[in-house]
Specification:
six-stranded antiparallel β-sheet, alpha/beta, Immunoglobulin-like, TIM Barrel, Oligo-1,6-glucosidase, domain 2, 17 helices
Length: about 525
C-alpha cells in the first residue's frame, strides 16, 4: 500500500504564508522558510500526514514563472533551508510534495535568456514552442512564442524535445537527492504532453519507492491522466465544484452524481485528490452562502472516496475572495501564534482536528472501504464507507434518516450520540446544517474497527489486507473470470473479458494481490474498464 493512498494533505503556498515580497530582486537570501517550522506541529495536530508545498523555486514573482528549478527562491532562503525543512517534516512523520511547474518557465530562465541573446543561433531555440523570429511579443524581443494562459511572462516549454524531457527528469532526480522529496504536484497537467508525462512517471518509478505524481486537471475523463502509465492521481475539480454548489443550491444530487460518475471512469485503486479550496480558488467560507455548511462540506471532504486536502488557514475558517487582477487574498500571511487558542475555541479548527483523527483511526474504512448510497434527497445524503455510516443535512431544519444497518448499534464519532438498530435499521436525527460519522458498536457497546494487517515482503515493502474476511475466504469469494482472452478490440469485449485482460496485464507486471483482483472484479462499468486496460504499457 502506498503512503499517498492513506494521506490527509495540508497545502501551503509558501510565498504567501511567509509574507514574502511580491517581486524578487534576486538579492541575498532571506530565511523566511524557517518561519514555517512551527507549522509542522500544527499540521500534525490537526491530523494531516502529508504536506503539499509550492511553488518553491527561484522565480520573479508569484512562483510559477520559474527562473531556476534547482535553487530555492531567495525570498524563502537557501537550499540548505529547504533540505532542513523537509527533514523536519519527515522527522514528524509528514511526507512532502513539491509543486512542479514544468509546462512553462519564466523569461529569466537560462534557456530563454539564451534565445533572447543568440536568437536563431541559440542551442535552446527548440526548447520552447513555436519560436518565430519574424514575430514579436509584448516585451519587444523581436520574436514570438507560445505562452501559457495568454501571458508572455510564461514561455511554454517544448515537451516533445528530448533535451527538455531529459532536463526536467534530471530536476526530479535532483529534488530527490538534494531534498528527499516524496512526490510532485504537476502544475497545469491537463495541458502537458502525454509522452512527457510518461517520461516523468518512469523517472518517478525509479527515484524512490512510492514516489507520487499528482496532476492539476480541471475537467475531463480523469483516467486519461491518472493511470498506470502517466500520473498516480489528479485534482478532482468536478467534486470541488459540487461541494459548494451542492450546498448553496441545496442539491445533494449533484454531489452524489459526481461521485458516481467519477467511480464509473476512474479505477477504484486510483484515489483522486479532493479539496474544497486551494491557492487558485476562493476560500470555502467565502463560497458558501450559509457559513453553517462548513460542517457538512468538510465531513464529505474527509469521508467520500479520495484523498482529502486542506488549504492552509481554512481550518481557522478564514475567507478569501478572488480578485480580477490578484490572487493575494487567497494566499495570505498568517501568524500561527494568533491562532494558538483555536484548537479549543474555534469550531472550524476543532472540526478539522476531529475529522483528521477519524480519518487516521478509521483509514481501512475511509480509504479502502466500499462506497454505498443509503439515502439521497436534495437536502439529506447518507452513505456507507466500509463499516461506517455518514449522514449530512444541508437543510435549515432538523432531518430524520431511516437507514439500513449491519451492526446492532452505532456511535457518532463527532458528537458521541449512540443509536440502536431495530430490525436491521437505525433511526438518525441530525440538526439543521449538520452531519455525523457513525461507527459500529458490538454487543458490548465497544467500537468495532475494521482491522488491517501488514505483511512485510522480502524487499521491505508493505502490503495490506483486511483481517475480515480472511485472505483465503476473500479469494474464494471472488468470481471466476474467463481464462481465454479473445483477440478483439477492447471496445468489443464484454465486462468479464475486460476484467480478465486487466488481470492478465497486471500479472505481467508483478504479483496480483487479492485487493487488486477485487478492485478489478468490483468494476462493472464497461467504459471505465476500457480506459483502464488501455492505460497499461
Amino acid at each position: 500500500m502506498a503512503w499517498y493512498d492513506e494521506a490527509v494533505f495540508y497545502h501551503i503556498y509558501p510565498l504567501g504564508l511567509t509574507g514574502a515580497p511580491k517581486k524578487n530582486d534576486y538579492g541575498e537570501p532571506v530565511h523566511r522558510l524557517n518561519s514555517l517550522l512551527p507549522w509542522i506541529e500544527h499540521i500534525r495536530r490537526i491530523g494531516c500526514s502529508a504536506l503539499y508545498i509550492g511553488p518553491l523555486f527561484e522565480s520573479v514573482g508569484h512562483g510559477y514563472e520559474t527562473t531556476d528549478y534547482k535553487k530555492l527562491d531567495c525570498r524563502l532562503g537557501t537550499n540548505d533551508d529547504l533540505a532542513a525543512f523537509v527533514r523536519a517534516c519527515h522527522d514528524a512523520g509528514l511526507k512532502v510534495v513539491f509543486d512542479g511547474v514544468f509546462n512553462h518557465t519564466g523569461r529569466d530562465f537560462f534557456a530563454f535568456q539564451d534565445v533572447r541573446a543568440n536568437r536563431e543561433a541559440s542551442a535552446y531555440r527548440d526548447w520552447y514552442c513555436n519560436v518565430n523570429f519574424w514575430g514579436n511579443n509584448e516585451y519587444g524581443d523581436g520574436f514570438s512564442y507560445d505562452n501559457w494562459g495568454g501571458y508572455d511572462l510564461l514561455a511554454k516549454l517544448n515537451q516533445r524535445n528530448p533535451a527538455v524531457r531529459d532536463y526536467i527528469c534530471d530536476v526530479i532526480r535532483f529534488w530527490v537527492s538534494e531534498f528527499d522529496v516524496d512526490g510532485i504536484r504537476l502544475d497545469a497537467a491537463d495541458v502537458l504532453d502525454f509522452e512527457f508525462m510518461k517520461a516523468l512517471r518512469q523517472t518517478a518509478d525509479s527515484v524512490k519507492p512510492d514516489f507520487w505524481l499528482m496532476g492539476e486537471v480541471i475537467h475531463g475523463d480523469y483516467s486519461r491522466w491518472a493511470n498506470e502509465r502517466t500520473l498516480h492521481s489528479v485534482t478532482d475539480y468536478a467534486l470541488h465544484k459540487a461541494f459548494y454548489s451542492g450546498h448553496n443550491d441545496h442539491n445533494y444530487f449533484e454531489i452524489a452524481h459526481t461521485v458516481r460518475r467519477t467511480m464509473g471512469l476512474v479505477p477504484a485503486h486510483i484515489k483522486l485528490y479532493n479539496f474544497v479550496d486551494n491557492h487558485d480558488v476562493e476560500r470555502i467560507n467565502t463560497k458558501l452562502n450559509n457559513k453553517a455548511h462548513y460542517l457538512p462540506v468538510h465531513i464529505l471532504l474527509y469521508t467520500l472516496p479520495g484523498i482529502p486536502s486542506l488549504y492552509y488557514g481554512s481550518e481557522f475558517g478564514i475567507e478569501g475572495r478572488k480578485e480580477r487582477y490578484s490572487d493575494d487574498s487567497l494566499r495570505p500571511y498568517i501568524d500561527l501564534a494568533e491562532h494558538a487558542s483555536d484548537y479549543e475555541t474555534n469550531p472550524c479548527t476543532r472540526l478539522i482536528a476531529a475529522l483528521g483523527a477519524i480519518h487516521n483511526e478509521f483509514g481501512e474504512d475511509l480509504v479502502w472501504g466500499d462506497y454505498r448510497e443509503l439515502s439521497l434527497t436534495t437536502e439529506q445524503y447518507a452513505f456507507a464507507r466500509g463499516s461506517l455510516i455518514v449522514a449530512v443535512n444541508n437543510g435549515s431544519k432538523p432531518a430524520h434518516f431511516d437507514l439500513g444497518a449491519d451492526a446492532p448499534a452505532y456511535v457518532g464519532l463527532l458528537g458521541g450520540e449512540k443509536v440502536t438498530a431495530k430490525d436491521g435499521r437505525i433511526s438518525i436525527e441530525l440538526p439543521a446544517n449538520g452531519g455525523e460519522v457513525f461507527a459500529p458498536l458490538d454487543d458490548n457497546g465497544e467500537v468495532v474497527k475494521t482491522e488491517a494487517k501488514h505483511t512485510v515482503g522480502s524487499l521491505g515493502d508493505v502490503s495490506w489486507q483486511s483481517a475480515e474476511p480472511a485472505q483465503d475466504e476473500a479469494k474464494e469469494a471472488l468470481p471466476e473470470l474467463p481464462t481465454e482472452i479473445p483477440d478483439i478490440a477492447y471496445e468489443d469485449m464484454t465486462v468479464e473479458q475486460l476484467q480478465a485482460t486487466i488481470l492478465a496485464k497486471m500479472a505481467a507486471n508483478g504479483p496480483v494481490s487479492d485487493r487488486m483482483r477485487k478492485d478489478v472484479t468490483d468494476n462493472i462499468w464497461h467504459d471505465s474498464l476500457v480506459n483502464w486496460v488501455k492505460s497499461f504499457r
